[in-house]
Every structure is written in C-alpha cells, then in structure tokens.
C-alpha cells in the first residue's frame, strides 16, 4: 500500500473533519478544506508536490467541484482527483471524469472503496512523476553527449 497524501475538499466541515480522521487512522496523510479556493491555495507553494490525491465534492457554493477541478488540473496536472457526488449530481461527476478526474464515488462512500481508489490514484501520480524524471535525466544525458 502506498503512503498517500490526500486533500479532502467539501463544504460540509463536519464531513471533512470526520473523513480526514478516518483517513489518518488508515495511514493516509490527510488534510481538509471547505472550498475550492482553499483547495487551490493549499496546493500552492509546493503543496501539489506533497499532495497525491484530492477528494473533491461536486456540489459546493461559490466555486463548485467542476470549476475547482478545471483550475486544479490547469495549475497542477499531475495531482489526481476523485470526485464525490450525491445522486442528483452523477452527471456532473461524469463530466468531471471527462475533464480529467481520476474517478468518482457516490456519497456516502465506503471507506475501503475510497482507500482503494486513493491508492490507485496516488500510484498513477507517482508513476507519472517517475516518467517525467526519467525523461529529464535522458534529456540531460543527451545534452552532455553521454
């Protein structure tokens, strides 16, 4: 199992607090925020390199989940996003997948299922990072004429 780092984004503060505690108990480094703007701020200044997965609610006041996803993917394309949705917003979650979300889950979600998706998404992010590092190393080597 990967030691993943997760940012939980949901406008329901109690839900965020509970999910962060449950993830922490499972060995996941988790923190939570209650808006899309707070999520983007949390990822600035190197936060994206320390965050593997964002668990993002679709329905939020102000900047909703799809707007947050678009901004997040534009600024931090390697961070994987798992959308959380209620019954009325499944279409929005599917739209999120089209826009680059890793997957989506229905609320309330089973913690074991969420853990599986978090681990798989974190692995995907780390594999992408490794490929980028490998490509950079190859480029440096070619420039040197090694």
Folded structure, characterized:
Strand 3, helix 4 and strand 4 form a beta-alpha-beta unit. This protein has a five-stranded parallel sheet, with helices on both faces. Helix 2 (36-43) runs parallel beside helix 4. The chain has one domain (5-144): Rossmann fold. The chain is α/β, with parallel strands linked by helices. The chain has helices at residues 13-25, 36-43, 47-50, 65-75, 90-98, 111-144, and strands at 5-9, 29-33, 53-57, 80-85, 103-106. It contains six helices and five strands; from the N terminus they run βαβααβαβαβα.
Major sheet: arrangement of strands: 2-1-3-4-5
Poorly predicted segments: none
CATH superfamily: Response regulator
* CATH architectural label: 3-Layer(aba) Sandwich
Q: Tally of extended strands?
A: 5
Mean pLDDT level: 90
Helix count equals: 6
Order of helices and strands: EHEHHEHEHEH
Distance between the termini: 37 Å
Major β-sheet annotation: 5 strands, parallel
The total domain count is 1
CA-atom Rg in angstroms: 16 Å
Shape: globular
Share in helix: 40-55%
SSE blueprint:
Layout: E1 5-9, H1 13-25, E2 29-33, H2 36-43, H3 47-50, E3 53-57, H4 65-75, E4 80-85, H5 90-98, E5 103-106, H6 111-144
Parallel strand pairs: 1-2, 1-3, 3-4, 4-5
List keywords for this structure.
146 residues; alpha/beta; Rossmann fold; 6 helices; 5 strands
Short description:
By secondary structure, the chain is an alpha/beta fold.
């Amino acid at each position: 199992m990967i030691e993943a780092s997760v940012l939980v984004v949901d406008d329901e503060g109690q839900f965020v607090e509970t999910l962060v505690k449950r993830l922490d108990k499972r060995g996941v480094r988790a923190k939570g925020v209650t808006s899309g703007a707070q999520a983007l701020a949390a990822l600035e200044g190197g936060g994206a390199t320390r965050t593997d997965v964002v668990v993002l609610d679709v329905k939020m006041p102000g900047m909703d989940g799809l707007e947050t996803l678009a901004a997040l993917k534009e600024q931090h394309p390697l961070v994987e996003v798992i959308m959380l949705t209620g019954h009325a917003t499944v279409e929005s979650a599917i739209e999120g997948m089209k826009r680059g979300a890793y997957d989506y889950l229905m609320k309330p979600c089973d913690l074991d299922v969420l853990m599986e998706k978090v681990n798989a998404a974190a692995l995907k992010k780390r594999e992408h990072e490794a490929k980028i590092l490998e490509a950079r190393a190859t480029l440096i080597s070619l420039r040197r004429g090694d």
